[in-house]
Write a structure and sequence with these properties.
The structure holds two protein chains of two kinds.
Chain A: H1 4-7, H2 11-18, H3 24-36, H4 38-113, H5 124-127, H6 136-139, H7 145-155, H8 159-167, H9 176-189, H10 193-205, H11 212-225, H12 229-241, H13 248-257
Helix pairs in contact in A: 3-4, 7-8, 8-9, 9-10, 9-11, 10-11, 11-12, 12-13
Chain B: H1 2-13, H2 18-39, H3 43-63, H4 73-86, H5 96-111, H6 114-126, H7 130-137, H8 142-174
Helix pairs in contact in B: 2-3, 3-4, 5-8, 6-8, 7-8
Classes of the chains: A mainly alpha, B mainly alpha.
Chain lengths: 264, 175
Amino acid sequence: MMSPAELRPFLDELERFADGQMTAIEQEAFENRLLHEPALREAYQLYEQISADLRWVAGHETLRHRLVALDRRLDQRQTALVRIKRRQRRAQTRWGTIFTVAVVLLLGLWLLLRPGGRHSGTSWQDYYVADPGLPQSATLDEHRPLLAEAMEQYREGHYPAALHALRRVPTDNLGADTMLYYNGIFLLSQGDGRAARPYLRRVIQQPGTALSRKARYHLAVAHWAAKQWPEARTAFREVASDSLNPYRQAAQQVLQADVLQGEE
Amino acid sequence: MNQPLAEALTHLRMGNQTFLINFYQDNRDHFARWARRQHQQEPAVAHELLRAVLVDFYDQVIDGRLTKLPPDLRNYLYGMAQEQLQAQKTTAELPRVEASRRQQLLRAFGQLGADCQQVLMYFYFRGYNFEKVAGKMGFANATVARLQKANCLRKLVELRARAMEGEAPSSSPAA
């Protein structure tokens, strides 16, 4: 068979024939020549063989190119996925850190600014269990408006006003023990333990009063507020040992905390 | 599974390569893991190997060396990969003259520019007419596409002629 180099002179014609570029007359003439010219016939056979091989090469290369392009696309997709995952992880870490720092800061802030715990300090106010005052039902009686006002002022923390109102309550309208008791309570609540003590003492001395046990606790606190440590300790011990005293537990906590000491 | 696979063989013979493209997309990662486990191959090398195997498989189908689809295609392809790695070819091969002629043309084809390769692939493999080739390649019209194709074919024939001339003195004494 002829070599590809020998194909050169026939290539134009063979291509026009193979690609259907000839007119019907030209095509017929070319087919005639194929029958009679051995060199042309051999060139045509070589051309056909090259075309067949080229079809194979083109298919082979098309698949190879498509696979390479697909491979590149898959690589890019994988890289993008890895990048997205990494970014998500980084964002999660960042938000996690921010959240943790915020929580720690808030916790720190809360620890710093929280209202002092009931038993965190050593002052009597930290341990004092205040009297709730007379309930509204007991004071709304039309004959005791001043007592109601005194209790309202007391509950709102306006102790001098509460004291003023209490002292205006007619004595025939209120038991002496109650009057003395709340005088002591209001004075103690405004921080004047020394002044509160005589009132509370007199309540205790009243025979058969129901306020006696309560008054003992408040008197103990009044001793503490007045920094009368021995009296305070004795009074608290008494309350703590009295199983009927409603403030027994509060007194026990004070004694357990061992805070009744200081300069007199 | 068998029916679509049998159809796939027919489609491949007709030039529809989608089956192999899908196979590559679905099995690329699996093959890379297999190649790493069995032959300590890096993923990029394994991917290249799988592509070569798929092209080889395609050639087998097109050449008629493979007339029946293997019952387990994945096993068959992985076996081909193993053979390539161990350089022990057991699958049917083309007669040496034909294989050498095609390889020679493949090498010459590789020396053409990218545009020429594309034009020839469109015309000879896809079977596009000149009008469609012009549309795909951005040529002005079908005549330009025809002239481009003629020009590329000439270049290919020249490259092949030159390659044969280069090989002739050394191959003659051996023959």
